[in-house]
Every structure is written in C-alpha cells, then in structure tokens.
Amino acid sequence: GEDGAPPAPERVLFPPTFSVSEIKNKQRRHFMFLRWKQQQRKGGRGPPGGRAPPKAIPKTIENQRVYDETTVDPNDEEVAFDEATDEFAPYFNRQTVPKILITTSDRPRGRTVRFCEQLSTVIPNSHVYYRRGLALKKIIPQCIARDFTDLIVINEDRKIPNGLVLCHLPEGPTAHFRMSSVRLRKEIKRTGKEPTEHKPEVILNNFTTRLGHSIGRMFASLFPHDPQFIGRQVATFHNQRDYIFFRFHRYIFKSEKKVGIQELGPRFTLKLRSLQRGTFDSKFGEYEWIHKRREMDTSRRKFHL
C-alpha cells in the first residue's frame, strides 16, 4: 500500500461448493476456518440499520423427531370413542376410586423396601405389601376381590430397584417398565419436608401417540380425581425421547409473583418394555406393544410415546 502501510487483507472468496474441511493442512484449515468465521460475522450483519437475520433454532433430536402416524389429534373422534370405552373409562367417568397395591419381587431388600414406602406417600390410597413367596397370579384375584384398581410391582436386581410392572385391574392392561436412576428422599439435595396427605396434582408431559396416550391414562388413573391444591404437591411424568422422568415437588409461594419449588422425592426414570392386554400373564399374555430394539430403534429420532 501507499505510505508503507501493510496491504489490507484481501477478502477470501470461497467457491460456493468449497468446504474448509477439504484443506489437508491442519493449521491452514484452522486459519481459513477462523477467517471464514470472521467474514461471516462481518457479512452476516447486513447493512447498518438493517435487521439482524433471524436466530436459527438449533436442531435437537426432539424437534427433528420423525413424524409418527399414530400421533393423536386432540379432536380425533375415533380416539375419543376408544377412550370412552377403554379399561380406564370407569376411572375417568368417576365410577371408581383409585386404590393401589404396591408390592415387590420376592423377599425385597432394604433399598426396594424404602422406595416402596416413599412411593406410597406419593400415591394416595396406596398400600404396601411385601411378598414372601406368593405368586403374582394369586395376588391379582385377591386384589380384585378387595376393590384394588391397580397393582404396582417393584422388581429389583442385586438389592437395587430396576423394574416396575403396572397392572390395571380388573381387566388390564399391564405395562412393564425398566426402571433406572432411582433416588430416594435422603439422596436428593435440599429435599423439602415430608409430603403431606393431600392429593397431588398430576402433570403428564409429551405423551402424544396412541401408545403414549394409553400409558398417560394408566398413570393418571393411579391418582384421585380432585387434587387438593392447598397441599401444593405435584407429581410429574415427563416423557422425553421415550424415557419417562418422574418427579415429585411441592411449590411454595414466596410472594405474589415468585414461586419456589422443592423436590420431595423419590425420583426415577422409566422406559416402557411392553404393554400387554389383560392382567399380568408372562406365559400367555397378548401383547399390544413390545419394545424390540433392533427393529424399532432404526433412527435416533424415532420415538414411540
């Protein structure tokens, strides 16, 4: 340049199909990439006083979700009819009052026992029964005779709760879940005081397909109809990428505008393994849905609930 000033850096114009990754030399590639970034920043702003380009929404597995043809339209008449006549209709029509038996695999150990006790403080009108050698097949008729509407079985492996079977009575269906990430009350930082006897609100997030609807109805029908808002307790089943995260909170009004929440616990994660018509039957059960990993998990963006 004139006056001995260093020449202004020339603007690098890459051909439209060019990719920086084609440059073999690592330092050069990095330098060109930074150069290109810089240009983007300069060029991307548009004319002074112009509008900034709209912010790109980052792609996530969820928002790139493969469309599922069974996603339920809230106004679908067929779904409405099915739900008016399915096994949960008596609950939703308020003809039954939830009464839950929580039981375990045979001779449960410490952690599973504590988990069942804590779960029974989350679900009103639930009763814990520890199994000693009694087959599930025999428990079910006794439950039905005593007006239990649901049976929850907590299975364990090496003293750690790792499975949950949810059986709706008297006619089913029965869902098998793998259970993981169980945290008991003591293991959650800054837990609130013990839950009260109030009936909690229930929040079901993201159960959008037909299968998701069925599972959501199963969870909903474990809880009594009219939550006692005065207790400010909330049970949440949040479905994300087919993992169902369970949390139990109490919220606290700090002022008219501010609300704080305290986690009460326990917390756990469920993954549906199968949904079976009728009550628990490991031999002759008719399955509506089974998770078959090799066939179903073809895309990381395909979800079933």
How many individual domains? Answer: 1
User: Total strand count, please?
Assistant: 11
CATH architecture: 3-Layer(aba) Sandwich
N/C terminus separation: 66 Å
**Uncertain residue segments:** none
Structure description:
The protein is elongated. It has seven helices and eleven strands. The protein has a single domain (68-297), classed as 3-Layer(aba) Sandwich (Rossmann fold). Strands 1, 2, 3, 4, 5, 6, 7, 8, 9, 10 and 11 form an eleven-stranded mixed beta sheet that branches. With 305 residues, the chain is α+β, with helices and mostly antiparallel strands.
Summarize this structure as a short list of keywords or feature phrases.
305 residues, alpha+beta, Rossmann fold, eleven-stranded mixed sheet, elongated, Brix, rRNA processing, Ribosome production factor 1
Please give the structural blueprint.
Elements: H1 26-44, H2 77-85, H3 89-92, E1 100-104, H4 110-122, E2 126-129, H5 136-145, E3 150-157, E4 160-168, E5 174-183, E6 201-205, H6 210-220, E7 233-240, E8 243-253, E9 259-263, E10 267-276, E11 287-290, H7 293-296
Parallel strand pairs: 1-2, 1-3, 6-7
Antiparallel strand pairs: 3-4, 4-5, 5-10, 7-8, 8-9, 8-10, 10-11
Describe what is shown at a glance.
With 305 residues, the protein is an alpha+beta fold.
